[in-house]
Amino acid sequence: MNEAFERSVLQDVLTASLKEQRRARRWGIFFKLLTFSYLIIILALVMGWIGNRDGDKLANQAHTAVVDLQGTIAAGGETNSALVVDGLKAAFEDKNTKAVILRANSPGGSPVQAGMMHDEIQRLKKLHPQTPFYVVIEDICASGCYYAAVTGNKIFSDKASIVGSIGVLMDGFGFTGVMEKVGVERRLLTAGTNKGFLDPFSPQSPEQKDRAMGMLNEIHQQFINVVKTGRGKKLADNPDLFSGLVWSGEAGMKLGLVDAFGSVDSVARDIVKVDNIVDFTPQPSFSDRIARQLGVAAATTLSSQLNMQLK
Question: Which helix (H) or strand (E) element contains residue 147?
Answer without folding.
Answer: helix 144-149
